[in-house]
Amino acid sequence: MAIPVQTTFKGMDPSPAMEARIRDKAARLERFADFILRCHVTVEAPHRHHHQGNLYRARIEVDVPRGRIVAGNGGTQDHAHEDPYVALRDAFAAATRQLEDHVRKLGGAVKHHEPGLVPGRIARFVAGEDYGFITLEGGQEVYFHRNSVVGNGFAQLRVGDHVRVAVSEGEKGPQASAVHRVGG
After folding, report:
1. Measured between alpha carbons, how far is 47 from 24 in angstroms, rounded to an integer?
2. What is the mean pLDDT of residues 120-134?
3. C-alpha span between 135 and 69 (Å, rounded)
4. Residue ranges of the domains in the chain?
5. How many angstroms separate the CA atoms of 61 and 40, rounded?
6. For 131, which of 33, 55, 74, 149 is 20 to 30 Å away at the CA?
7. Which of 89, 2, 1, 3 is nearest to 40 (CA)?
8. 64-68, 81-85, 110-114, 176-180: which has the minimum mean pLDDT?
9. pLDDT digits (tens, 9 = 90+) for 37-66
10. How far apart are CA 76 and CA 118, in angstroms?
11. Predicted pLDDT at 113
12. Nearest CA among 171, 172, 170, 175 for reference residue 134
């Protein structure tokens, strides 16, 4: 599933090539955690006070269930960051390390259910189709597809069943990226 990515350029014009690089690097974060909700990347050009030694800054904010990971290279004086692509590379490397740590902490700390799953109930199925809708705690309704049901359990689900859901932003709004039946 594609991670929603927002890019902000400060003190510089947007670059389609840099935006493509950012999307590629953000997509690679999914290798470490498939529950990323959003990624915001800020690339900031240096102030033009100096003729040499202007360092670019990159900041990555990754929203995940139970937290936000913030990584960047704002405080470094590494002259390799005179190249904005190097600043991005280093910021994404730091974000990846923090994301791995976050996943490790959640994996070790949670015993009875997976982190970031929201309680809900099966609201309805669309007749003759492989999808339906879940009402989450709080009343929000989200789409789910049979492929998002863990363990090939789609056929066993019934309206009213309690589930735990990982929610992510899809093309048409929020959707369930993982559905776990409770007690089944």
Report:
1. 27
2. 92
3. 28
4. 5-109, 118-181
5. 5
6. 33
7. 3
8. 110-114
9. 889 999 998 766 555 567 889 999 998 877
10. 38
11. 41
12. 175
Do residues 52 and 183 lie in contact, with contact meaning Cβ atoms separated by under 8 Å?
no
> Each residue of 61-82: pLDDT tens digit?
998 877 788 998 765 566 667 8
∠ CA 172-173-174 to the nearest 5 degrees?
135
- Structure pTM? 0.55
Contact, 162 vs 170, CB < 8 A? no
Rounded Cα–Cα distance for residues 132 and 148 (Å): 11
The set of residues, in sequence order, having a beta carbon less than 8 Å from that of 65 and lying 6+ positions away, is 35, 37, 115, 116, 117, 166
For residues 29 and 96, is the Cβ–Cβ distance under 8 A?
Answer: yes
Q: Give DSSP secondary structure letters for 97-119.
A: HHHHHHHHHHHHH--SS-TTPEE
Pick the CATH number of 118-181 from 3.40.50.360, 1.10.340.30, 2.40.50.140, 2.60.120.200: 2.40.50.140
The hierarchical CATH code for the domain 5-109 is 3.30.160.100
In angstroms, how far is the first alpha carbon of the chain from the final one? 26
